[in-house]
Amino acid sequence: MIIKPKVRGFVCVTAHPEGCAAHVQEWIDCVKAKGIIQSGPKKVLVIGASTGYGLASRITATFGANAATLGVFFERPSEEGRSATPGWYNTIAFTRAARAAGLYAKNINGDAFSLDIKKQTLDLIRADLGQVDLVVYSLASPRRIHPATGIAHRSVLKPVGQSYSNKTVDTDKGIVSTVAIEPATEQEIADTTAVMGGEDWEMWMNALSEENLLAPGAQSVAYSYIGPEVTWAIYKKGTIGLAKNDLERAAQKIDSLLKLKGGGRAFISVNKALVTQASSAIPVVPLYIAILYKVMKAHGTHEGCIEQIFRLFSEQMFNGKSLQRDEAGRARIDDWEMRPEIQNAVRQIWPGVTTESLGNDTDIAGYRTEFLKLFGFGLAGVNYEAETEPHVLML
How far apart are CA 337 and CA 227, in angstroms? Predict the structure, then answer.
């Protein structure tokens, strides 16, 4: 079938297998060009490994440190007349490249919140790897069925305490408008924390520890975002921000656990705002990202997912270097984004952005390009007019 992008709101419902493979190869080439990370991880578990920062972590560990990796994710294969999810195609492309390089790469597709997938993962680590020295926790899911209670929790993106309104943009139609969002209920806050907080990360790490599957000195990292004040009502001070506070609580407990396991550590890495499937769904944030991209590209400091994670691994986590932590103990690779000259420029642009000025005031074109790349579209060297086979088996 010929696969074209079909965008509905903040998601594209199609994905192109060859395009996704080309995108993965771009990231692999980027890492290879940067060179080997000395003292990098050797056996890595990535939970949430198929897209975004999780995929970037897996590629960086594999092609930057020659690491063996096990990826856990929840992706949908193709169906009759329907392509698979981009994460499905990404993982197949990554796995082929890793194995062609002679490196271990295996995958588990299923609900990472469940006890069954945890058990499958632990069994595979025990059989194939013995222990892991890095665990990356990069899940981004709208729903979690709690393994102990069976209750289905759904996350929401809402302010807390009072209603909120601000500018936002329909990135597909290019319309700037005002969005008004009512505050979350206490139940919605609790549900969002259950999905996006730190409990599941703790469950993973405790299970790995109890089964003696963590190598001495093992590290674990989870990813977060803080951003500028213009996004705080919907992010840092909203439901998602409260969930991230719980993630930080979990980081402290896991850090104590790993310190007892041969001097390891766990921490939160605060990353830059980027176009991802998750960020596209957050009101206000896509407009901020479009402005940010314009400003950072003008300053020559723009980075994508893969550059961010390579910098985290090579400049902070490994090579014997210490983490550059903030007052809360978080690693900060959003440091270039949060430079005063960058944020001052964003603040100057923000009030004047309209539908008519969007193309000049922001990098909406770059936003759209990066968004479509997530689904395998717009990659050089891919013939999008040709027939392609959407049915590809997971490796």
Answer: 8
- Check if the beta carbon of residue 163 is closer than 8 Å to that of residue 173: no
Q: Phi, psi at residue 159, to the nearest 5°? A: -75, 170
Residues 268, 330: Cα–Cα separation, whole Å: 5
CA-CA-CA-CA torsion for 339, 340, 341, 345, nearest 10 degrees?
Answer: 110
Pick the catalytic residue from 53, 89, 225, 235.
Answer: 235
Token couple for 272: 């830059």
The CA–CA distances, whole Å, from 271 to 132, 286, 307, 347 equal 24, 16, 11, 20
- Which sign does the torsion angle of CA 320, 300, 334, 49 carry? negative
Assess whether 137 carries a catalytic annotation: no
Q: Name residue 134's beta-bridge partners.
A: 44, 219
pLDDT in tens, 163-176: 999 999 988 889 99
- To the question of domain 7-373 being in CATH 3.10.350.10, the answer is no
Mean pLDDT of the 268-280 span: 89
For helices 115-124 and 199-210, angle between their N-to-C axes, nearest 10 degrees: 40
| Closest by CA position to 285, among listed 301, 303, 273 | 273
Q: What is the pTM of this model?
A: 0.96
pLDDT in tens, 178-198: 989 999 999 999 999 999 999
